[in-house]
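TASK: fixed-backbone design
INPUT:
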């Protein structure tokens, strides 16, 4: 199994999201990520390094892998790319996992700090969504 959380770099090279998940009280999140990554093959030998220094793309790949695994997809690891060569119930397809960077002039998502009011607005929106979803069924 890959050791994503054995730190390989000096702190100034670590991605902010990686540092955030390394705090002591986030051990459950690290355990869950390791469950997601169980069986994931590092075909180019860079996965752990990229997870610690750039974070988002590796996180996304591992999350997608966990979803595909959960739903019974078969992964062909014989090629270094694309990210996923999958098959399911006789259908084969490939998928390249990509992430988007912040728009020019906009802060990175890991640098955004939400005010109390913004967090309350998000919570109200979440509650509204839950109520709307329940009414639709």
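OUTPUT:
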């Amino acid at each position: 199994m890959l050791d994503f959380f054995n730190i390989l770099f000096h702190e100034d090279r670590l991605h902010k999201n990686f540092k955030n998940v390394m705090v002591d009280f986030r051990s459950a999140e690290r355990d869950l990520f390791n469950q997601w990554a169980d069986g994931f093959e590092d075909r180019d030998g860079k996965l752990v390094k990229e997870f610690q220094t750039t974070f988002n793309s590796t996180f996304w790949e591992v999350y997608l892998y966990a979803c595909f695994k959960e739903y019974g997809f078969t992964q062909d690891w014989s090629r270094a790319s694309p990210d996923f060569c999958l098959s399911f119930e006789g259908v084969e397809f490939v998928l390249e996992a990509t992430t988007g960077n912040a728009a020019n002039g906009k802060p990175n998502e890991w640098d955004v700090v939400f005010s109390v009011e913004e967090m309350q607005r998000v919570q109200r929106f979440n509650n509204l969504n839950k109520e709307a979803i329940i009414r639709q069924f």
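COMMENT: The chain is about 45% helix and 10% strand.
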